[in-house]
Amino acid sequence: MFISEALLPDLSAAAIAFTIITYVILDGTDLGVGVLFATRHDPDEKQIMVNSILPIWDGNETWLVLGGGGLLALFPVVYSVLFSALYVPVIAMLLALIVRAVALEFRADASARMKRWLDINLVIGSLIATFCQGVIMGSVVQGIDQQGGKFAGDGWEWLGAFPLACGVVLVIGYALLGSCWLYWRTEGALQAAARRQARRLGLLTLAGIAIIVVWTSLLAPSYRDHLLQSNLSLALLLTQGALLIGFYQAFSSRFHFLPLFAVLGWFGTAFAAAIIALYPMILPPSLVISQASAPASSQGFMLVGFAVLVPVTLAYNTWGFWVFRGKVKAESPQE
Amino acid sequence: MESVDPALMLARYQFAFTISFHIVLAAFSIGLANYLMVLEALWLWRKRQVYRDVYRFWLKIFALTVAVGTASGLVMEFEFGTNWSALASRAGGILGPLMFYEVMVAFFLEAGFIGVMLFGMNKVGPRLHFLSTCAVAIGSLFSAFWILSANSWMHTPAGFSIASDGRFVPEDWLQIIFNPSFPYRMAHMSIAAFLGTAMLVGGAGAWHLLRDNTHAPARVMFSMALWMAALVGPVQLVAGDLHGENTRDHQPQKLAAMEGSWQRPEAGQGEPLRLFAIPDQANRRNDFELAIPHLGSLYLRHDWTGTIQSLDEFADEDIPPVAVVFFAFRIMVGIGLLIVAMGIASLYLRWRGGLFECRWLMRCAVLMAPAGFIAMVCGWVVTEVGRQPFTVHGLMRTAHSHSQQPLSFVAGSTFALVILYLLVFGLGLFYLLRAINRLPAKSTDAND
Q1: Nearest CB to B81 within list A59, A79, A333
Q2: CATH topology for the A7-300 domain
């Protein structure tokens, strides 16, 4: 291997981190649109919202599949402990994602009455999936009790205050992503409504992120120390501040994608803060990256593919987004 | 016999339930994606409108299939962690990378281009659209490649060592990926996906032909499906035979269970072909056996007197549940022979004329519409139940592979999954049948 074996665990963790944040910003946006479905009632507007995500949601969700597969492949102990510990929210998330998929794809041929039923399911599916993802992330930060690579708790630890708060904040955050997406891709009354929603949700999201970051540093002394001692923390704080100003300024620009990109920056800095707090632990409080790793041969085999294939994937995914550029219309998208 | 742990049994049933639904969808997606690629190629090349009409008809159905297929696949991937974490821990170093490559090479390819394929006809030119269809079709086959490699490794493990803590450590990735049973399973399953889809397409075509046998799109569907049955059906019999030979060499208990063979026949007697029997696992014998002597040797050993290892050459705790494997195998082969028979009948009718006048063949085709997929599921039952009591053949037992979740968790998740799947697949089936029942539009637009 031309990469030193000692670097493989950290590189693998970086690959997982990249996959997670990519999933969050891509599918977070679709799930956010799904959540916001509850706020609009005009059938044309709802059709436009669905049309805006129909060609891309499947590809976005595939990053979650990569995340799960990556965890199994690169850190199998984390994979098995995590899914044993978070059995209930993981199953709930999977079921909710199925409901969301069905609500989106079965809509085209549905009667008006069936559409109303599917719409309710789109909202519920998106809400539950998002909330569960927040709970899962919060549980990881809170810590998972494991002994010798096996989960050692009772499976209800996710019902704590911190994970549940993370669930709520993630719902707000995804809704913000969704509203910024709609501001970019729609026009008229729907866009104006999205603009209002985005500006309000922006403040709520920032408050939420701030609360979670402070709470995180209170959860464990190591978190607090990592955050306070890292040089990056100040940089992240400044970036967050700049993006905050940028976000609100962006609504005056003729480039409608800017608010969304600012919010993507927020998610990025928040995620970076989480990594700073946790590193080198991959599953707090007791599993560090090097302990939880798959054999070097597995990690090396995968990272080679990752390094080549992920840029290729990003390239043709970008092409896919570009094909469907422009403002979204209400007509049902046939081929 | 070890006492049965209810949480283990429930976890196994949950897996069997979720994977059965998923495999049908996945196979249908593979078959349809490739069929759509062929149709679009024919349309671009021959420029006959009818190919475009058939393409559009099945494209709508493909959209339904793929969406639910992705979501049900996600369940499978995470189910290894929730219910089978011991297997995930020990074999994750090997199975994980294979599934990881499946996502990176195949799923992303499919998911990335499916948006353009489904919704982009008016946004990109016809050649670029065709390339997108090809990307989705090839992606689906890549996906089959990786997941079948992972599954095959569990049947015929190779290229690994075992660490002191029991973990499987990869040593040679080429040997792992191209393990002994992989090529046969890949060929047999890919063909099964194509044939299952062909039977469904043929059944849909026949359904419309029975009402109006001049309908051009329906004629195309019916005819193409029967070409598949006639030409690819026999190939599948050969692929199955070769797969069976590989199983004979690497998983002899499974083959013995497929044949219901409890004792080895005397020298010179050869293996019988058991048309029917009721295997009695506790007493290690068959009741009501109806068998033809020697014919078994013909397909098992390709001679008149060869024999295979029998079940009594293995310990009680190392053999699978025989009855399930025995009957599933016979259903699968029976359906396969029926498909080949339909193919032969269609060849005769083409030669003599009257393929589109033969109403009994059309009625057969309608009845046989789900048959390909039923045979495929039976085949999976044969191979997976036949692998029991092992998850990794000879090396790791199913009983030691599960997460040991509390019974309440497994019961709760099973209950929720069953209800949701029945609702979703019920609704999906309703939409599928309704979409098939609608006449494929014969387009008259000038701009097509």
Answers
A1: A79
A2: Formate dehydrogenase/DMSO reductase fold (1.20.1630)
The answer to whether the Cβ–Cβ distance between B409 and A99 falls below 8 Å is no
- CB count within 10 Å of CB A156 equals 10
DSSP lists the bridge partners of residue B168 as: B162
Average pLDDT over residues B88-107: 90
ipTM field: 0.86
Distance from CA of A130 to the nearest CA of B (A): 15
Closest by alpha carbon to A41, among A251, A162, A193, A157?
Answer: A193
CB contacts of A77 in chain B (<8 Å) are 89
CB B332 within 8 A of CB B378: yes
> What pLDDT is attached to residue B404?
81
* Residue to substitute from B14, B76, B85, interface A, most A β-carbons within 10 A: B85
What lies within 8 Å, CB to CB, of A268 at 6+ separation is A21, A25
Q: Across the interface, do A91 and B427 touch by the CB < 8 Å criterion?
A: no
Segments making up each domain of chain A, as ranges: 7-300
A69 vs chain B: nearest CA distance in angstroms?
Answer: 5
Instruction: Please check the confidence at residue B420 and state whether its pLDDT lies above 60.
Output: yes
Are the C-beta atoms of B20 and B60 separated by less than 8 Å?
no
pLDDT at A17: 95
Mean predicted confidence (pLDDT) in B93-97: 90
Contact between B96 and A298 using a beta-carbon 8 Å cutoff: yes
Q: What is the mean pLDDT of each run of 10 residues along chain A (335 residues)?
A: 78 94 95 95 92 89 89 88 90 93 87 91 96 95 84 86 96 96 92 93 93 90 85 87 90 89 93 89 86 86 91 88 86 59
Whether A138 and A167 have beta carbons less than 8 Å apart is answered as yes
B77 and A72: CB-CB below 8 Å? Answer: yes
**Nearest chain A residue to B413, by CA:** A91
- Percent of chain B at pLDDT exceeding 70: 97
* Chosen from B68, B82, B422 to mutate, greatest number of chain A CBs within 10 A: B82
| Domain ranges for chain B | 6-264+308-437
Instruction: Find chain A residues with C-beta within 8 A of B56's C-beta.
Output: 335
When pLDDT is averaged across residues B181-208 and rounded to a whole number, the result is: 96
Are A44 and A112 in contact, with CB atoms under 8 Å apart?
no
CB pairs under 8 A between A and B: 232
Q: Contacts of residue B146 in chain A, CB cutoff 8 Å?
A: none
Percent of residues, chain B, with pLDDT higher than 90: 69
Q: In this predicted structure, what is the pLDDT of residue B442? A: 63
Chain-chain contact of B115 with A99 (C-beta, under 8 angstroms): no
Nearest CB neighbour to A324, from listed B78, B89, B123: B123
d(CA A262, CA A206): 12
At B378-414, the pLDDT tens digits run 999 999 999 999 999 999 999 999 888 889 889 999 9
Task: Give the C-alpha separation, A160 to A139, whole Å.
Answer: 8
Are B232 and B195 in contact, with CB atoms under 8 Å apart? yes
